[in-house]
Amino acid sequence: MRRLALQVLVALLLAVPAVRAEVPRVLTWDLLVPPMPQIANPFTALTDDQVLDLEALVQIRTLEKNGLITKVDPFYEEAVEIAYQLDQQGLDVEALVVEYEALLAKVTELQKAVVTDLDGQQVRIPGYALPLELDESGTDEFLLVPYVGACIHVPPPPANQIVLVKLNQTYKAERLFEPVWITGQMKVEATSSSLYLVDGTADVEAAYVLEGIQVEPYEY
Length: 220
Prior knowledge:
This protein is an alpha/beta fold. It folds into two domains: 48-111, no CATH class; 116-217, CATH 2.40.50.870. It has four helices and six strands.
């Protein structure tokens, strides 16, 4: 009788599927960036001053193309003068501009490159919480960034160094850039979010979305 009871118990245990909680993978920010090819510097023959002038020229021309300045703007006049000076130094200005723009496009593409294997993984990652809006009642969405000041005091990090966090709960930050651990499911998904600032709004691109299920204060 005891043997029969033991056999029944074993059969029941075998019939119940084992439930194993998935242990989240701990990520560091460098793991969000895939291995990248090294980009050759096409401007090694230029002096530092010439490279700076070329950068300024491209930036001003970009402003003009986007309608942010006109041909009567002092910046446009500065661009004309820069192009003249570079030409007087024996440089093919237009060819250099094309090359610089191509390099810029390549760098921008690499900054959006993602690690596709992270899609669907349960992860845990530390960072600084930057709410999209300041709300006393809290928020269920914010940006997770790798350093203090990102997107506000300095240019935003590359898209593959920004994570849009969507929580299943309300989170109330005590301050901007509060250090936290976020646990949840990572998705490789490009998003653009409007970040509300004191002097207006800014669009911030993120290459990842983290569906957060747990927010904890950061402790090393």
